[in-house]
Specification:
The protein is mainly α and about 350 residues long. The protein folds into two domains: about 270 residues, Fic-like fold (Orthogonal Bundle), CATH 1.10.3290; about 60 residues, Winged helix-like DNA-binding domain superfamily/Winged helix DNA-binding domain (Arc Repressor Mutant, subunit A). Helices cover about 60% and strands about 5% of the residues. The chain has 14 helices and four strands. Strands 1-2 form a two-stranded antiparallel ribbon. The chain has a two-stranded antiparallel sheet with strand order 3-4.
């Protein structure tokens, strides 16, 4: 059986790239409170946007979809779920809200993970949630020809409860010992969780919820304002590659965590960079609202949608954005591309 522990992490993890990523994230964390205190009203709007993005992205990664309108209504609790997909979306919303509101008081023990999993399926009529897996599972991948192969064989069902107790207890002990940076421990915990694959269903979504919990408890709050789940969704291929690279030899204790650590730290750093850019943009509010819309289009490479502008400027109403875009189209500053839901705008350089 795999020896799960964090007392003596093997050499090879702290590569120059990992060290650089950790140092950069520490630097952003040092400025985090300045960001948060800068414009609390705007950050509240960013938080609400990130909630919707996080719930939607994390579920889409697992093939769970609904329309943008329904997603927003469910996350904002303006509508009850109408089908199985929406039930699972509502469950994710519940666990995410609990983490946002109570992370300081939630210690990541095995019993807490079971409660999270129960709540993840709290809207489902089936009694799926809140239990470790009762049968062995496998992680498959399908190639372009439709052929399937086993990529990884997780811990068997009969060993799962003990493995999860050990994983949680060892992580808590390592955090308390303060020997290793939590930016190392958190990706390793998440990776081991995924290798154990403790539930019949919902392991991926649980891993992303636990990521937020552990980061918040360690003082890294960026996931509240920038959706880490959406960044992961946009880099799914790299995510699965990192999982594959780090899982080889896991059962024999010979695997290399570095690829997954590097990927996860890159996600966190990208979120902080986006957070910083948005706050700096919002702080420059001496310009009028139409001027701010123009500045976004002037400094953005490629297409920009109305929704993306609304995310960058949550204090500007959609109607004001539409008016500004119409004026920019008339003066020839931008070009409209696509139609309907695919409508976007690009800078006119001609």
């Amino acid at each position: 059986m795999r020896d799960i522990g964090y007392k003596n992490l093997r050499e090879g993890i702290m590569t120059p790239e990992v060290v650089k990523l950790i140092a950069s994230i520490h630097e952003y964390k040092g400025r985090q409170e300045l960001f948060i205190q800068a414009k609390p009203d705007i950050l509240n709007a960013m938080l609400e946007i990130a909630k919707v993005q996080s719930v939607g992205a994390s579920n889409r990664i697992e093939g769970i979809y609904t329309t943008d309108e329904r997603l927003s209504a469910i996350v904002k609790e303006k509508s009850e779920p109408k089908n199985r997909s929406e039930q699972e979306i509502a469950g994710y919303r519940e666990v995410l809200a609990a983490i946002h509101e109570n992370y300081d008081y939630i210690v990541p023990r095995a019993g807490v993970l079971l409660q999270f999993h129960r709540d993840l399926y709290s809207f489902s009529p089936a009694s799926t949630g809140g239990h470790w897996k009762n049968s062995d599972n496998i992680i498959e991948e399908t190639d372009r020809a439709g052929n399937k192969r086993v990529r990884f064989q997780p811990v068997p069902a009969f060993e799962t409860a003990q493995a999860m107790d050990t994983l949680c207890n060892e992580f808590i002990a390592a955090v308390n010992q303060d020997k290793y940076d939590q930016l190392l421990l958190i990706p390793i915990f998440i990776f081991d969780f995924l290798c154990i694959h403790p539930f019949n269903d919902g392991n991926g979504r649980m891993s992303r919820l636990l990521t937020l919990l552990l980061l918040y408890r360690a003082g890294y709050m960026v996931g509240k304002y920038i959706s880490l789940e959406m960044i992961i969704e946009k880099s799914k291929d790299s995510y699965y590659e990192a999982l594959a690279d780090s899982s080889a030899g896991w059962h024999e204790n010979t695997n290399n965590y570095e690829p997954f650590i590097r990927y996860y730290l890159g996600i966190i750093l990208n979120a902080y960079k986006e957070f910083s850019a948005r706050v700096e943009h919002l702080q420059n509010r001496a310009a009028t609202k139409p001027e701010r819309v123009k500045n976004i289009l002037a400094n953005k490479t490629g297409k920009v949608t109305k929704a993306e502008i609304a995310i960058l400027c949550p204090d500007i109403s959609i109607s004001t954005i539409e008016t500004a875009l119409s004026a920019l189209l008339k003066e020839g500053f931008i070009i409209k591309v696509g139609s309907g839901k695919t409508t976007a705008y690009i800078r006119n350089y001609s």
